[in-house]
Amino acid sequence: MKAMQARLCRKNQLLFIAALLLALRVERSHEGKQNTALYFRSIEKSYNPKYVDSFACNISTDRSTISTSLNIAKNVSVDFWMKVAIAFKQQASKKYRSILSFNVNLCEVLRNEFNQQGLVHLWIRNLQKYSNMPRTCPWKAGSYYWLNLRPEAGTIPKFISAGLFRIDTQFYLKALNNEPFTNVTIVFELHRD
Description:
Blueprint: H1 2-29, E1 36-47, E2 52-59, E3 66-72, E4 81-89, E5 96-105, H2 106-111, H3 119-129, E6 142-149, E7 163-173, E8 179-192
Antiparallel strand pairs: 1-8, 2-3, 3-6, 4-5, 4-7, 7-8
């Protein structure tokens, strides 16, 4: 029963992502341009000292980019998993409402990166433009960075309205009893005109 529920949940996630991709393709086919601005408000982070020596995140003074550095203390021989939850804060409410969540094997995404056109793959390619992150797994001990990271045009779907958003990202090691690796929460404002 649980296996069937897990397959159904995964199928629903894939259908939702497919709908997002279809919407992206439809939006890209329209002629008019819409200006989008994203401003980072805050970052909270934590890490597991068993695997990470240091982890720093900073927002630029104009709030348009983030720079991050990560020093991995020892080789990680199992796949990284990434759980992402994106929430929107409605103006009249003090609470965030979940709009999208997914849980993926990051190493599998990296292995198949050039064969896929999904939203997650677009975001990973964007991350890679600004970093020295490994393109494959396993990740070795060492220092990694993401400098002046910003969303690229076309990676924020046009059907997402302006407002305040929160992204909670958890990297963990599923093969090691879901041992946490790093957690990052980013709050940002999205403006459209």
